[in-house]
What we know:
The structure is a single chain. The chain is mainly beta. About 10% of the residues lie in helices and about 55% in strands. The chain is built from seven helices and 37 strands. The strands form seven sheets. The chain has a 22-stranded antiparallel beta barrel. A five-stranded mixed β-sheet has the order 3-8-9-6-7. Strands 1-2 form a two-stranded antiparallel sheet. A hairpin with a 6-residue loop joins strand 18 and strand 19. The protein is globular and about 70 Å long. The N terminus is likely disordered.
Amino acid sequence: MYAIRMFFANKFYFVVILFSFTLCFSNSLLAEQRDDAQDLFDLSFEELLNVRVSTPTKTQHETWLSPSSVSVINRQQIENYGYQTVWDALQTVVGSLPAFDGNSAQLSFRGALEPGSFGNRFIMMINGHKVSHSYFQWTSVNESLGLAIDNIERIVIVRGPGSVLHGSNAFDAVINVITRDAKQLNGFEVVTKIAAHTNATGNSPVEAERNINRIITSLSYATTHNDGSNTLVSATRNESKGHKLWLPYFQATGQGGIADKVDDKLSEFFWLKHQRKNLSFSAQYSEVDFGRPLAPFFATPNSDLTRNNVRKYFIELAHQLALNNNIDLETRIYHDRNDFTASWFYQGFSPLDRQIVPSKLTGIESFAVHSMADNELVIGAEFEQHQTSQIEDYPSEDNFFRFDAFKFNQHAIYFQNQYTISPSLLWNISARYEDNSDYGSVNVKRTSLVYQPLPDMAFRLHLGEAFRAPLLHDFFYQSSILNLPQNKIQKLSFEKTKSVEVGFNKRADNYQFDILFYRDTDENVVKYNASKDHYFNARGDISKGLEMVLDYQWSRELNGYFNFTYVDTPRDSEGEKFNAPRYSIKLGSTYQILSDKRLSLAVEGQYYADQDYVDHSARIGVDLQQTAYSIFNLNLLSKNNPLDLDINFRIDNLFNRSFEYPIFKGTRQGYPSIGRSVMLSLLKVF
């Protein structure tokens, strides 16, 4: 098995073997297309507003009558705006905060992007399967997600606490990426994408580069068999040669703040999905190898020895059973593996630091849905076993080697009841109890009322709680720095948050308007103490904000969105601030130039202002002032053309102005000044 895995990890040609295997044996695999699947690309604006999603409740409900605030990015929007990764799409969601440090794409919601958080305050799922790393609890939002954007049907974002149904880390959002089914392709698809990045602006000393430096190739095959089963298999290779970045905070390094093409990246991933009647099987494998020009943790900037590698896979078997006309039972069994390997080059001491973090988990979840005349009851149970370890090795130093291993089990039970008090009033109540063998037990509750006085109007009151288990890497860090055994370090407690949301929704034939006010109170937040070099539980802080969304369709040819966010995150008990641009405006519009989708134009803009950053005495030598950030993107889409191709031409940062992604600042953390980038995508179905 080890030899096979190493071959797959290093050779892209395994695609041929996997395709051959799938074509030969797909009829014997257990899979089927669900009868209620919809092609969102062909839905009208009114039908899109009525799309039913299950992420907030594990049962099917219209998004605007959900107990939580829901945003949906469908395949039609993905194609119209030319998104290349899930991260591109999620940047447009109200309240989301994108961050980019020159290599790693990060994301947060509700203003919370604290140093070292690794994006662990929300959950990312693929078809309901959580894909967070057991050790860091980070969430991949770009290539590291291991899924080509062309295989995504829609992205469902449930804003606000979601731990009741989905467990740890669902502080600010739950994101479920729904993949397309074989019926939506039913053939052989080839996608080729080429990109060039200038990465030069009027304020940058970097000369504009006009060479192609990124090539993406994706192959997909889907078929429906005679017995009703269907198969979708896909493989993608994404190679970036790297490009020059201007990193202003590198000015003192003697290289003028220029990172010289050490952000190269090679991504390879494979996706398999089979369905038949009430049984489905999914599998994913991905590997991403990339350089790190920013050199975090005091490493030497611009060193080609500073590299990361993320390799992961998961398999899942899901079964649905209708016990009778009123009770449905769904069971999932899954296994995940995630290997993170990194090296940092230091100058002057410990020239090379190697970190190896293998992590795996095995789990099972089962829940029953009992549908009655006036209420819908969900009862579920979940078990997961996590195993992870960390190896840190300085090959140049004698006897500097450290190994720590961690293992814990978590058991959870949860329930939810959505009760129809009257035709205009819905009441949702739910709770979860979870026991963690390493951290103890925790319970959270949620209740909400949805009042619909008119068919096109709804009010929502939501009270919810969420929790997050401390990171295993927090314990390792303390034991490493303080040179203490694991059983001697301070025991950290669960982070918790309590949230109050008040929302209003108005809809019509050509628009939907939603406004939400929230107030989150965090407790026992895990913080870093710079003077003592360790983590501890702080009192927490309060954040509040306002989110406003307008989706519209002025005519058959013209539609778009407008989002506004206000966030306030005051200083906590330690005098620190979360990273929170106080105001943000996001807008987008699509215009169909030629009928029958032969040519359409889409534009998007984002603007952030009045930004607050983590202000800590440990962040020395860093300018804490930051101007407003804005970007304007353009995309041209052509379908049903004489070439019989789907053609996307996307330009990021159309005006080529100097901007910096809003990200926390630190001694070895920063953000690049980005220039214009262009990408051409060609898709052909045979």
